[in-house]
Amino acid sequence: MVEPLSAWWGQQLVLCGWGFSAAPETVWTPAQACARMKAQEVPDAGELGWRLLEAFPNDTPDPLHQLEALELLALARTAGWLSEARTRAWLIRLLTAIGGRFASLDDWLKALAHSRSDAGWTRGDDGFFEASLALSQLEHEDAGVTWPRLQEALEAQPPVAVTELWPQGERDRVWMARAIFSPWLGGQTLTTDDSGPHEDGASGFDAAAHWPDVTRWLAETWAITGRDELIRLLLWLASQGHRYGWDIDSARLMTASDSERAKWLDELEADAAQEEAERKTEGRKGAPAHASSSIDVADGGLEKPPSPTAYGELLLQYLDRGEPLEFAAWDWLRLVDLAFAGLCAGWLSREEGEDFAAHGIDLLVRRYADWQGVARAYQRGRSLFEGVDLTRDTESDWRPLMASPLTPLRCELHALLPAARRERCRAAIRAWRNDSRHWVLAIASIREPDLLYRQGLVAEVAEVDAARREEARQYLNETLALDTRDGVQGMARFWLPAQAHHLNQLAADAARGALPDAQTPFGRADAVELERRQRLAVCHRYPASVVMAEKYAFYLLMVQDSGDFPADELAQCAERLRSALCRYYPDAMRLLEAWAVWESAVPELEDHPLVNEIRWHLDDPGSLFHWLDWRASDWQEPGLRPSLDRFTALALSGPLNTPCWGEPMVEYGRGVEELSGWLEGHYGLANAEALKGFLDFLRDAGDRDEYQINYGPYTLNRARLDNEIDVLESAERGDDEQVHLDRLRRVRDNEARCNELDMAAWDIAQMVDLAIAGRQLGWLDDATFTAYLDSAYAMARDHYGSWKEYARGLFAGYAFFMGDTDQRDSFLRGFRDALIQWLTAAPPLAGAWSSLDFPGARPGHWPALHLDVLSGDARTLH
User: Per-residue pLDDT for 300 more than 80?
Assistant: First the structure.
């Protein structure tokens, strides 16, 4: 028996030049069907989805579109692009729409003729007129499936729900979100697993049917030629994408004045011109920074990226008219589309593709309430990328999809992902980032955002290009003075737990109004620095370790990029970094909140704090920070943690050198030559034995004895002092006599209160400073170094009662024993200013005294209740 709906379908296809068949799916071979669809500009099943939707607009449908849909359904079924059930569902909906609008076959044929005429067709050009006459004649002769029989057959059919037209399996629904690019109609057959029925993978993602030129598109549009690049780009779109650069620019421009915005636009143009010149010089291709933000790919199908001026002017227009500055849908919808492309290309397994797509939907759900919000945000992002304002075209661009009664987006956005599927995709995305290397990438990316393109598969050192490797080596040599002879263990010296303790203590004191007095024996601290110091009060609830961990992560990454250090040992450093931060911060939110607060208080660059960048990661659900493996392994920090007393002993060197925030280690880099040259040039110390002898001298006698023996007695006999000065002034003098005369004059004038103050601090500070240098040169072993630190600590405790007293003695000794050079006044002024900074913590990282109790003194600081503070040494109560 002939099935009436199929027969009527076959009758109508005669209008398209077909021979009649009651089974239209059998008229052509699969190859012929594909060729006919390609001739009609339907190269794949994605375009087929658009053509079917065009037959069901939200207003009066075009009969010609409906006829084209009837033909395409038959061809698609023949080609294997549609399952039998889905073909039948679309056919019933089409025939129901046609039968419900027209009263008879003649009305239908007349409407088709009018539509063809409006489209520019002429009578007799393809046999349509003759076929119409033949069908009309059959209808009047009551032959074939007539209009009444069609209506009877349709009435006998159960209603076809919209959900039957699109894949609805739990695994399949993730692809609904890519409908803006290409509605997915599924495959030829269904299969079933634990998640229930779903589209068969072999036909559902067959490149020939769904994306014939997918590999070419990936190469030309995204510059992707393999699986590794694809995965990295998928993870980049999820975690950063183009939105990062746009969001950062928006945040800065929100508070900028008109002149600052104009300057930004000028700089954007200048930077792009410079970048383009560099690209031409290096032979690189890709989008400029304002378009691609992080990677050298010109996506979006743009042969010529937009000018930076177009991007900048459009962003400023958004600001002026109050446009929502939200663009994430541009990245996350393309994440879904790119996952589908990878699946069709065979570079992703079905599970991997679905997990990436589900991740994109998961992120969309966290940011948007409905599809309308997604559409508007996508259009804003697309506008910025193309440099043309397309926001006013949102309704027209999305109408075929959003307004059609048969749209696949009838399912609410928040209903796309069942809970089990959501948890599965989250676990899968975390698995891509579960090694400690991603911790290093995440933290270092705040300073260098391009690093987030390295996510995913483990990148071998060989993949770091030669220029990057050379840049890293230069950085290690010139900035870090880290040599290959230092080994990976040399990285420990960049882990600075004492610095974190210092900041924690200052924040605790600031919150309770207990910071050191701004007035010191050497003057008052700078007002601007005092204001900055007070910012620390807001930090007291947050551990400070992230401040130094950020630098450590960046240094570790540069060491990795150099390719000169064992990868397995560097991985251990990264693991220790993760373990430490997981103990100090319970989750990503807490770490980022702490980092943002500390960065606002003590930014590395005062004129360019990274608060906006940090808060972006805090607010963006796709940020890598939210997808790290947050677990602590066995406790071992990346570097040594000194005790509180040892840190205090190290701080006794004061401003003779930069603050020592960590345990000194033996070094081999470029700085060693400078250090040994300094010791020999200033102190005549050329080897370990000479250094130890001089340290023993400082401990047992030092310059303090020189004063007591050779100058102290003059304070008891002023006449003898004046006579000695007169004799020396009236005679010829060598260098030694001149030094003696200068010091006698200082005794006479009581310069820097040298006759009143205990100058042992000068010897103590020198001893600690030189011992640190000796340890760095390897001239002192750990036990010997510790012995000298203990001696210094004991001497300070015995001679002084506070840091102010110690500072007075140190300055007096510095001033008394300094030579009388032309720059003496400048040196004294600089040392005085440094002492002010050390005593007041203005600026906070000038020195450590303000956070430490002086040796032997009673505790005078509020406790900082964080895990990353230093512990005190055990003490015996008597």
Answer: no
